[in-house]
Amino acid sequence: MDKASFTAAVAEYQNMVFRTALHSLGCRSDADDAVQEVFLRLYQHGKGFENGEHLRRWLLRVTVNYCRDVLKSPWRKRRVSLDELPDIPVFDQPEQAALYREVMALPEKYRTVLNLFYYEELTAREIGELLGVDTSTVTTRLSRARAKLKSRLGEAWQDE
Question: Which residues neighbour 85 within 8 Å (Cβ) at sequence distance 6 or greater?
């Protein structure tokens, strides 16, 4: 990959990689580290991509795999919990902050599918291919994540 195409890829996909990592890892600094690592791997990849969609899917796959590795790390288990950290994003509306807290309280497997489905606008089939699971597993995780959010948020929940 030449320097110009790498720079263009970073400019276009940096926010997507950050959002995916933040939803998986739950910490802004870890998400920043993930972005750097994913784009370092892209720079070192050496092989070309068929098109922009192929590159996008490759970046999502590398991001998800990197986040899984970080979450499995023994170092991660010795850290303080997210509740003790003041690094919470600021939202315009209190409902957004409540929703963010509830989504981040979900297990990683639910946060990941919610992020890929709602923010990255992938279909359940595409998410299944990306995560290496069946489409039915993805739809089950989405359904369970929605149910958990609905029970926690009560009347404020609006599934459109």
Answer: 27
Closest CA to 91 of 81, 102, 82, 100: 100
Exposure on the CB side of residue 11, measured as CA atoms within 13 A: 6
CA distance 157 to 149: 7
The whole-angstrom separation of Cα 91 and Cα 146 is 21
- The mean pLDDT value for 107-127 works out to 90
- Residue-wise pLDDT tens digits, 25-83: 888 889 999 999 999 999 998 777 888 899 999 999 999 999 999 888 877 666 655 55
CA 146 to chain centre: 17
